[in-house]
Amino acid sequence: MQLDRLSSFPVTAFDAAGELALGPYREHLRHQIDAGPAAIFACCGTGEFFSLTLEEYAAAVRAAVEETAGALPVFAGTGYGTAMAKQYAAAARDAGADGLLVLPPYLIKPSQQGLLDHFRALAASTDLPLIAYQRDNAVFTPDSVAELAGIPSVQGFKDGIGDLDLLQRMMAVAPDLTYFNGLPTAEVTARSYAAVGVKAYSSAVHCFAPEIAHAYEAGLDELLTEFYLPLVKLRDKGAGYAVSLVKAAVRRRGVDVGSVRSPLTDPLPEHLEELDQILEQGLTVVRKAAA
């Protein structure tokens, strides 16, 4: 699994009636692919996996596979309980996905044994490689990660809690997994993760400003204070803004991907004005560096 830099997690487009809009979604995907991420992760957190029916999910994953045309690997999200996770995994495989990002199980907080059973059952149901996503109600111990690594199809581990001490202990017992920084606005912690050997990360900013995402990855550190930290401050002003603010930014840069689906809500008007200011600050830094 050669994913040693930032990956794109595209949003999923909806029309004015809230229905899946594959035309704008494909346009958004083309922008993402052309910008050159390591991979496309379709229908994951930023892509509102939790709001998609199985049929919509299958159509969106298939569109991502068709648009990449083999140029980039396509990973699809899967989640909920084990039975439903297997259904989404099967749909992703039928649609041509190259792997799966396994989101935390729905609602309950499982035991370590329950998490391992979940992954074993999912692995037995598909030949696609799996990436475990540690966040919220799915937090592993180092011993459990060592057992995860013993499942041949589990090839990656995405960390969304930010405990670098815990992560390093996991890496010590399961060094062959590919590790990812999966925190919201991961660029803010990318340097810290890189210091412990984790260079890959998910970039929501890539959805709407790939030029900023790649400039920061290349070492334009001024973007941290001029763009990323203000963006995080704005993100924290609204529940669900880690998704809805990103989707609003995609719209404001010219692709009509629509609104988020409930129970998420779109950003407030004053927050959209602030988003425009922050985006312009970031683009200005990139333009000056390129001049």
UniProtKB/TrEMBL annotation:
Pfam family, one: DHDPS
SUPFAM superfamilies linked to this entry: Aldolase
Keyword Lyase: yes
E.C. code: 4.2.1.41
NCBIfam families: PRK03620.1
Superkingdom classification of source: Bacteria
Entry keyword annotation includes Repeat: no
Catalytic activity reported: 5-dehydro-4-deoxy-D-glucarate + H(+) = 2,5-dioxopentanoate + CO2 + H2O
Similarity comment: Belongs to the DapA family.
Enzyme kind, highest EC tier: lyase
Gene source species: Kribbella lupini
UniProt keywords, alphabetically: Lyase
Protein's recorded name: Probable 5-dehydro-4-deoxyglucarate dehydratase
UniProt-listed InterPro entries: Aldolase_TIM (IPR013785), DapA-like (IPR002220), Dehydro-deoxyglucarate_dehyd (IPR017655)
Pathway recorded for this protein: Carbohydrate acid metabolism; D-glucarate degradation; 2,5-dioxopentanoate from D-glucarate: step 2/2
